[in-house]
UniProtKB/TrEMBL annotation:
Organism whose genome encodes this protein: Auraticoccus monumenti
Highest taxon, organism lineage: Bacteria
Matches recorded under InterPro entries: WH-like_DNA-bd_sf (IPR036388)
Protein's UniProt name: Homeodomain-like domain-containing protein
Length: 71
């Protein structure tokens, strides 16, 4: 079983401490994966609008959050 699988399972734990800690860990993982994929999309020539559409956010929101990746 992978760490991600364990954390995902722990997120539904009846123990609030374990469940909330797992939710926090998943949030960190989600942010990391999103940044990785936004950088990948930009490297492949995707526009901010294309990325925003897939993420279901505004173009401005995704650009504001990830424009530093352009440097």
């Amino acid at each position: 079983m992978t760490d991600a699988t364990r954390v995902t399972a722990a997120a539904s734990s009846p123990d609030p401490h374990e469940g909330l800690a797992a939710v926090a860990a998943l949030r960190v993982l989600q942010e990391s994966l999103e940044e990785l994929q936004v950088a990948n999309a930009r490297r492949l020539g995707w526009s901010w609008q294309q990325i925003a559409a897939v993420l279901q956010v505004s173009k401005q929101a995704v650009h504001r959050k990830y424009r530093r990746l352009e440097r």
